[in-house]
Amino acid sequence: MPANVISYFSYKGGAGRSTLAYNTIPLMINEHIHPTKEHPVVVVDMDIDSCGMSYLLGIPAKDIRGDACVQHILKEGCDTRVAGCIQDHAFLKHLIPVGNKFNYADNDAVLFLPAKDNKNINQDTVYGNYEGPGPFTECMRSFIDACENHGVSTVILDSAVGYQATANVSNTLADTIVCCMRPTKQFVDGTVRYLESLDSDEDSPIGGGEKRIIIVPNVIPQTQMSIDGLEYPSTAISYFRSLLSDVLDRDEDDDIQYAIDMMEGNGVDFGIPALPSFMWREGQLCSMTKLDEDEQHVLVRYRKLAGVICDF
Fold first, then answer.
1. Is 127 a residue whose pLDDT tops 90?
2. 109 neighbors 40 (Cβ within 8 angstroms)
3. Domain total of the chain
4. Residue 106, domain extent
5. pLDDT tens-digit profile of 231-245?
6. Burial degree of 40 (CB within 10 A; 0-12, 13-18, 19+)
7. Beta 256-259 vs 211-217: how paired, if at all?
8. What are phi and psi of 197, to 5 degrees?
9. Can you give the CATH number for the domain in which 83 is found?
């Protein structure tokens, strides 16, 4: 059975993408996917410049082997022959069990392919893959094929940003793209331009084919303020919706389908509210024993997004 491939993406850095993934993946695996050792979830850190998910999971760079990281796969690909189980596969057996780090009881049911800090794949092409799928995509596709052949149920990619090569790879291979952005004009304008380029033909930065894209306004400030006579956050929310309306108003037969569940509501019920504590230190709300009122509400929003991702 083909694995479901999910890409967490943002057009710009600083959108809180990795923290969003870090908080919604535990809810997805505990409440929707229920992976097992025989049919695990595989999480991949595709952000080879920042290695955000590798950092959040506490994987020391010195412990990541150069031949057992995502950069190795992007250069060399992966043997797709069926070998019985993951532990029999020459590469997949090196995936790191991280179920407990995602608040899941079966540590071996969630596996992680890290990115190794300071290990680039080809400096001349990391930012230059504007013309659709290339060799990096095919190498990564071989890894996903190998995962499917060995019983993996879901592959979750923590993408890079914008048109970086590994972002294009992630979004090309994904069935579902979780597209997050802050509500500022710069973030929204850039994201809209990116979405407009996804016309589903072979000239698109992510090639053709059917895609499901979930729009997620993220890190939404909750402080009411007036700027140049305009009230925020209501002004930003209105601008966000108006600019995205043309992109989202597509024919039903279009290959790209959008989910706007996280754009409904206003104030604290619009997107994912900002958490003051996360401005200083990222956390995983579902694993915390004591949450304040703001954290409890954000956890509810994370839970809603996890459901949208798994049900879309």
1. no
2. yes
3. 1
4. 4-311
5. 888 888 888 888 888
6. buried
7. parallel
8. -80, -10
9. 3.40.50.300
